[in-house]
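Minutes, methods subgroup
Present: GH (chair), OT, SY

1. OT presented the first of two proteins processed in the latest run. Sequence and structure tokens recorded below as shown on screen.
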Amino acid sequence: MPKSGGSPGTDRARNPPVLHLTASLRIVAKHKHMPKLTVVQARDAIEHLATAAQLTREEQRLAQDLEAATKIPVAELARITKQWPST
């Protein structure tokens, strides 16, 4: 039976990051001690991690936790966050 769908790896491109969004929100909220973190706040935090010249130890841990959970480098995750809803 033929395989339906595209080539391997296209699922992430087609259905970007609902799971990445959820995992990222959870991780950023935990690190920032903000249980009611918004998508915009998480996006800003991830963009900061991707663009900062130097990160604090806590920011380094946050970046490592995000990369471990999503399997996506922070710079790429920052690019993906632009696809997230703003609310």
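2. SY then presented the second protein from the same run.
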Amino acid sequence: MPNQDFTIAANYSIAPPTKSFPTDQPSIVFQAAQACTLTFPNATNCFGQSSVPLVQGLNTVAVTSPVTTDGEVTAPPSPDAQQNPDTFEITFN
């Protein structure tokens, strides 16, 4: 079983807020306490998608391009959804 690179808590906060990977990183693993979505403000990001839904537990997301990526963790639509999504950054070196 792969170790997680990022952990998303039940309140949708992400740790660590930034992490660097080698340029040949094939995937990134997110451990989510509950279902959420990763969203990316820039069309060019390391996953090649505008958003990635995550399920509770381990989620392995393929890296399609080793480019610096800024993202947000967003809650599913609900009355309790957070107003200010937690942000993260992925870099490659």
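Chair's summary of item 2: The two ends are 25 Å apart (CA to CA).
Next meeting: continue with the remaining queue.
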